Amino acid sequence: MQNNKTDRIIRSRRKTLALEVTCDARLIIRAPVKMTVKEIKSFVERKHHWVQEKQRVARERLRNLAPKQFVDGEKFLFLGNTYLLSIVDDNRNPLSFDREFRLSRAHLHRARQLFVDWYKEQAYKKIRERLHRYSSFSDIHFKNFTITNAQKRWGSCSSRGNLHFSWRLILAAPHVVDYVVVHELVHIKEQNHSAKFWKKVELLLPDYRSNRQWLKENGYLLAI
Predict the structure, then answer these.
(1) Which stretches of the chain drop beneath a pLDDT of 70?
(2) In the CATH scheme, what is the code of domain 111-221?
(3) Where do you find CATH 3.30.2010.10 in the chain?
(4) What is the C-alpha separation between 224 and 222, in angstroms, rounded?
(5) What's the CA gap between 115 and 107, in Å, rounded?
(6) DSSP code at position 66
(7) CA-to-CA distance for 128 and 131, rounded, in angstroms?
(8) E-strand spans in 79-116?
(9) Engineering a disulfide at 167: which of 63, 123, 125, 130 sits with its beta carbon 3.0 to 4.6 angstroms away?
């Protein structure tokens, strides 16, 4: 196992060891509670070439993902769909949306922040709606939730039942948003990734596996 601060070991009551390379090329190691560091290191070393190849592909994807230029005709994601950007001569509305994004030419100098603020507002509305829906279905109650700037975590749950979600989720399709909402909501009852946890997730969202996989493979796209 490389001495790399981006590596992360997550221990739980699982019986087997698993490796995951995230969309930003970090290595996550999921291990049983009692497995020794030596055993983990040996397993990772045996999988060295697999890890290297997965990380190479992830880094290549990131390199090919050009940063937004905020120019006329550029495409932006919102709830899984792609919409065009139009630069307009409108000083009253810095950024608006109606089947396309309309950005005021006078506000081009702060275009990215305008988009981030708009996405945050939409994320708050959508996630609030989905949280209340699934909270009602599951009878799992949360105390509060916030929208964050997190880049490496789609969501998190505190020991006090407070939930946090990255605004970047609003770029993904609704069923992907639902997966993260359900995932964090269930953590209020099960603060681990045990079989019991996943069973509760599946009861609320039977197709959660495909959504989880989509995030692993395509989460790097949810950025501006």
Answers:
(1) 1-6, 64
(2) 3.30.2010.10
(3) 111-221
(4) 7
(5) 11
(6) P
(7) 5
(8) 81-88, 95-97, 101-104
(9) 123
